[in-house]
Amino acid sequence: MPRGVLGFASVAAVLVAWEAVTRAGWLPPLFLPPLSDVLTELGRLVASGELARSLALSLQRIALGWLLGSVAGFAVGLLVGLSPVAEGLLDPLIALTYPIPKIAILPLLILWLGIGEPSKVAVIAIGCFFPVAVNTAAGVRRVDPVLTRAARSLGARPWQVLTKVTIMAALPMVFAGLRLAAGMALLLVVSAEMIAAQAGIGFLVLQGGALMLVSRLMAGLVVLSLLGIASTWLLQAVERRVVRGQS
Protein backbone atom coordinates (compact mmCIF):
# COMPACT_ATOMS: atom_id res chain seq x y z
CA MET A 1 0.00 0.00 0.00
CA PRO A 2 1.43 3.46 -0.91
CA ARG A 3 2.79 5.55 1.94
CA GLY A 4 0.42 8.41 1.07
CA VAL A 5 -2.62 6.16 1.47
CA LEU A 6 -1.32 4.85 4.80
CA GLY A 7 -0.69 8.39 6.04
CA PHE A 8 -4.16 9.54 5.03
CA ALA A 9 -5.74 6.49 6.65
CA SER A 10 -3.92 7.06 9.95
CA VAL A 11 -4.92 10.75 10.08
CA ALA A 12 -8.52 9.92 9.18
CA ALA A 13 -8.66 7.27 11.91
CA VAL A 14 -7.44 9.76 14.53
CA LEU A 15 -10.01 12.36 13.42
CA VAL A 16 -12.87 9.86 13.48
CA ALA A 17 -11.82 8.66 16.94
CA TRP A 18 -11.64 12.28 18.14
CA GLU A 19 -15.21 12.98 17.01
CA ALA A 20 -16.55 9.68 18.35
CA VAL A 21 -14.93 9.97 21.79
CA THR A 22 -16.07 13.57 22.34
CA ARG A 23 -19.60 12.98 21.02
CA ALA A 24 -19.95 9.98 23.30
CA GLY A 25 -19.26 12.26 26.26
CA TRP A 26 -16.13 10.45 27.41
CA LEU A 27 -14.31 13.79 27.55
CA PRO A 28 -15.86 17.10 28.64
CA PRO A 29 -16.08 19.70 25.80
CA LEU A 30 -14.03 22.07 27.97
CA PHE A 31 -11.11 19.65 27.77
CA LEU A 32 -11.56 18.57 24.14
CA PRO A 33 -14.41 19.86 21.96
CA PRO A 34 -15.73 17.68 19.13
CA LEU A 35 -13.94 17.98 15.82
CA SER A 36 -17.14 19.22 14.19
CA ASP A 37 -17.28 22.14 16.65
CA VAL A 38 -13.66 22.98 15.91
CA LEU A 39 -14.36 22.96 12.17
CA THR A 40 -17.41 25.17 12.73
CA GLU A 41 -15.28 27.67 14.66
CA LEU A 42 -12.66 27.50 11.93
CA GLY A 43 -15.37 28.36 9.41
CA ARG A 44 -16.39 31.37 11.51
CA LEU A 45 -12.80 32.59 11.66
CA VAL A 46 -12.51 32.25 7.90
CA ALA A 47 -15.81 34.02 7.25
CA SER A 48 -14.95 36.94 9.54
CA GLY A 49 -11.53 37.41 7.97
CA GLU A 50 -9.80 37.04 11.35
CA LEU A 51 -8.01 33.87 10.31
CA ALA A 52 -6.74 35.45 7.08
CA ARG A 53 -5.34 38.46 8.96
CA SER A 54 -3.70 36.32 11.64
CA LEU A 55 -2.33 33.86 9.11
CA ALA A 56 -0.90 36.61 6.91
CA LEU A 57 0.99 38.14 9.83
CA SER A 58 2.33 34.81 11.07
CA LEU A 59 3.38 33.67 7.59
CA GLN A 60 5.19 36.95 6.99
CA ARG A 61 7.17 36.51 10.22
CA ILE A 62 7.84 32.84 9.51
CA ALA A 63 8.97 33.39 5.92
CA LEU A 64 11.33 36.25 6.73
CA GLY A 65 12.82 34.59 9.82
CA TRP A 66 13.18 31.22 8.07
CA LEU A 67 14.83 32.79 5.04
CA LEU A 68 17.31 34.87 7.05
CA GLY A 69 18.18 32.04 9.41
CA SER A 70 18.48 29.46 6.62
CA VAL A 71 20.74 31.60 4.45
CA ALA A 72 23.02 32.37 7.40
CA GLY A 73 22.97 28.74 8.56
CA PHE A 74 23.80 27.44 5.08
CA ALA A 75 26.73 29.85 4.72
CA VAL A 76 28.17 29.03 8.14
CA GLY A 77 27.57 25.29 7.74
CA LEU A 78 29.30 25.31 4.36
CA LEU A 79 32.27 27.17 5.81
CA VAL A 80 32.52 24.82 8.80
CA GLY A 81 32.24 21.74 6.60
CA LEU A 82 34.90 22.91 4.17
CA SER A 83 37.48 24.53 6.45
CA PRO A 84 39.14 22.80 9.42
CA VAL A 85 40.08 26.24 10.75
CA ALA A 86 36.46 27.43 10.62
CA GLU A 87 35.37 24.15 12.19
CA GLY A 88 37.79 24.65 15.08
CA LEU A 89 36.65 28.24 15.59
CA LEU A 90 32.89 27.94 15.10
CA ASP A 91 31.97 24.41 16.21
CA PRO A 92 32.48 25.18 19.92
CA LEU A 93 30.41 28.36 19.60
CA ILE A 94 27.58 26.48 17.89
CA ALA A 95 27.72 23.72 20.50
CA LEU A 96 27.69 26.34 23.25
CA THR A 97 24.68 28.32 21.99
CA TYR A 98 22.60 25.60 20.33
CA PRO A 99 21.07 24.19 23.57
CA ILE A 100 19.81 27.60 24.73
CA PRO A 101 15.98 27.75 24.32
CA LYS A 102 15.56 30.38 21.64
CA ILE A 103 12.36 31.79 23.10
CA ALA A 104 14.31 32.50 26.30
CA ILE A 105 16.30 35.19 24.49
CA LEU A 106 13.17 36.95 23.18
CA PRO A 107 13.12 39.43 26.13
CA LEU A 108 16.72 40.33 25.32
CA LEU A 109 15.85 40.80 21.65
CA ILE A 110 12.90 42.98 22.61
CA LEU A 111 15.29 45.09 24.70
CA TRP A 112 17.66 45.43 21.74
CA LEU A 113 15.20 45.67 18.84
CA GLY A 114 11.93 46.78 20.41
CA ILE A 115 8.61 44.99 20.71
CA GLY A 116 7.79 45.27 17.00
CA GLU A 117 8.44 42.90 14.13
CA PRO A 118 12.29 42.87 14.21
CA SER A 119 12.47 41.04 17.55
CA LYS A 120 9.97 38.36 16.43
CA VAL A 121 11.73 37.82 13.11
CA ALA A 122 15.12 37.74 14.85
CA VAL A 123 14.13 34.99 17.31
CA ILE A 124 12.75 32.89 14.43
CA ALA A 125 15.91 33.47 12.38
CA ILE A 126 18.13 32.44 15.30
CA GLY A 127 16.10 29.28 15.83
CA CYS A 128 16.27 28.38 12.12
CA PHE A 129 20.00 29.07 11.89
CA PHE A 130 21.16 26.12 13.98
CA PRO A 131 19.48 23.11 12.28
CA VAL A 132 20.50 24.39 8.84
CA ALA A 133 24.08 25.10 9.93
CA VAL A 134 24.54 21.75 11.68
CA ASN A 135 22.99 19.70 8.87
CA THR A 136 24.83 21.57 6.13
CA ALA A 137 28.17 21.08 7.87
CA ALA A 138 27.44 17.37 8.36
CA GLY A 139 26.39 16.99 4.73
CA VAL A 140 29.54 18.68 3.43
CA ARG A 141 31.79 16.55 5.63
CA ARG A 142 30.17 13.37 4.28
CA VAL A 143 30.84 14.18 0.62
CA ASP A 144 33.02 11.44 -0.85
CA PRO A 145 36.51 12.88 -1.50
CA VAL A 146 36.73 10.69 -4.60
CA LEU A 147 34.04 12.83 -6.22
CA THR A 148 35.91 16.07 -5.66
CA ARG A 149 39.22 14.59 -6.80
CA ALA A 150 37.57 13.22 -9.94
CA ALA A 151 36.06 16.64 -10.71
CA ARG A 152 39.44 18.35 -10.30
CA SER A 153 41.17 15.76 -12.48
CA LEU A 154 38.63 16.47 -15.22
CA GLY A 155 39.55 20.15 -15.14
CA ALA A 156 36.80 21.58 -12.93
CA ARG A 157 37.61 24.86 -11.27
CA PRO A 158 37.31 25.24 -7.46
CA TRP A 159 34.00 27.13 -7.77
CA GLN A 160 32.62 24.41 -10.05
CA VAL A 161 33.73 21.69 -7.63
CA LEU A 162 31.97 23.55 -4.82
CA THR A 163 28.69 24.21 -6.63
CA LYS A 164 28.43 21.15 -8.86
CA VAL A 165 29.87 18.47 -6.60
CA THR A 166 30.09 19.41 -2.92
CA ILE A 167 26.83 21.31 -2.54
CA MET A 168 24.89 18.92 -4.76
CA ALA A 169 26.12 15.90 -2.80
CA ALA A 170 25.22 17.60 0.48
CA LEU A 171 21.72 18.61 -0.64
CA PRO A 172 19.80 15.83 1.18
CA MET A 173 21.28 16.92 4.51
CA VAL A 174 20.73 20.60 3.67
CA PHE A 175 17.05 20.01 2.94
CA ALA A 176 16.71 17.98 6.14
CA GLY A 177 17.97 21.04 7.99
CA LEU A 178 15.57 23.29 6.08
CA ARG A 179 12.62 21.10 7.06
CA LEU A 180 13.70 21.12 10.70
CA ALA A 181 14.07 24.90 10.49
CA ALA A 182 10.54 25.24 9.10
CA GLY A 183 9.17 23.33 12.09
CA MET A 184 11.27 25.45 14.43
CA ALA A 185 9.92 28.61 12.79
CA LEU A 186 6.35 27.49 13.51
CA LEU A 187 7.17 26.77 17.15
CA LEU A 188 8.90 30.09 17.66
CA VAL A 189 6.35 32.27 15.89
CA VAL A 190 3.61 30.90 18.14
CA SER A 191 5.70 31.47 21.27
CA ALA A 192 6.71 34.97 20.18
CA GLU A 193 3.13 35.93 19.32
CA MET A 194 1.92 34.69 22.69
CA ILE A 195 4.47 36.85 24.49
CA ALA A 196 4.78 40.04 22.43
CA ALA A 197 2.03 40.39 19.83
CA GLN A 198 -1.57 41.48 19.43
CA ALA A 199 -2.23 39.44 16.29
CA GLY A 200 -1.16 36.21 14.63
CA ILE A 201 -1.94 32.51 15.01
CA GLY A 202 -0.11 32.33 18.34
CA PHE A 203 -2.12 35.25 19.70
CA LEU A 204 -5.30 33.58 18.40
CA VAL A 205 -4.46 30.40 20.34
CA LEU A 206 -3.55 32.38 23.46
CA GLN A 207 -6.78 34.38 23.26
CA GLY A 208 -8.81 31.18 22.93
CA GLY A 209 -7.18 29.74 26.04
CA ALA A 210 -7.53 32.94 28.06
CA LEU A 211 -11.24 33.27 27.25
CA MET A 212 -11.88 29.52 27.64
CA LEU A 213 -12.87 29.32 23.98
CA VAL A 214 -11.46 25.86 23.51
CA SER A 215 -12.87 25.43 19.99
CA ARG A 216 -11.05 28.59 18.90
CA LEU A 217 -7.85 27.36 20.56
CA MET A 218 -8.12 24.00 18.81
CA ALA A 219 -8.89 25.71 15.49
CA GLY A 220 -5.61 27.59 15.80
CA LEU A 221 -3.77 24.34 16.52
CA VAL A 222 -5.36 22.72 13.47
CA VAL A 223 -4.14 25.60 11.31
CA LEU A 224 -0.63 25.20 12.73
CA SER A 225 -0.69 21.48 11.98
CA LEU A 226 -1.75 22.16 8.40
CA LEU A 227 1.05 24.72 8.04
CA GLY A 228 3.55 22.14 9.27
CA ILE A 229 2.34 19.54 6.77
CA ALA A 230 2.31 22.08 3.94
CA SER A 231 5.85 23.28 4.65
CA THR A 232 7.16 19.70 4.75
CA TRP A 233 5.46 18.75 1.49
CA LEU A 234 6.63 21.93 -0.22
CA LEU A 235 10.26 21.47 0.78
CA GLN A 236 10.16 17.78 -0.19
CA ALA A 237 8.77 18.74 -3.61
CA VAL A 238 11.51 21.35 -4.08
CA GLU A 239 14.16 18.83 -3.01
CA ARG A 240 12.90 16.23 -5.50
CA ARG A 241 12.85 18.81 -8.27
CA VAL A 242 16.36 20.10 -7.52
CA VAL A 243 17.90 16.65 -7.09
CA ARG A 244 16.17 15.32 -10.21
CA GLY A 245 17.32 18.36 -12.16
CA GLN A 246 20.93 17.63 -11.21
CA SER A 247 20.81 13.89 -11.84
TrEMBL record:
Which keywords does this Swiss-Prot/TrEMBL entry list? Cell membrane, Membrane, Transmembrane, Transmembrane helix, Transport
The question of whether Ribonucleoprotein is a record keyword is answered with: no
Domain ABC transmembrane type-1 per the UniProt entry, residue ranges: 51-235
Entry membrane topology: Multi-pass membrane protein
Q: Where are the transmembrane segments?
A: 63-82, 94-115, 121-140, 161-178, 184-206, 213-235
Location(s), subcellular: Cell membrane
Q: One Pfam family name from the record?
A: BPD_transp_1
InterPro entries on file: MetI-like, MetI-like_sf
User: What family does this chain come from, according to its entry?
Assistant: Belongs to the binding-protein-dependent transport system permease family.
- Name of the featured protein: ABC transporter permease
User: What organism does the UniProt record list as the source?
Assistant: Geochorda subterranea
Q: What is the lineage of its organism?
A: Bacteria, Bacillati, Bacillota, Limnochordia, Limnochordales
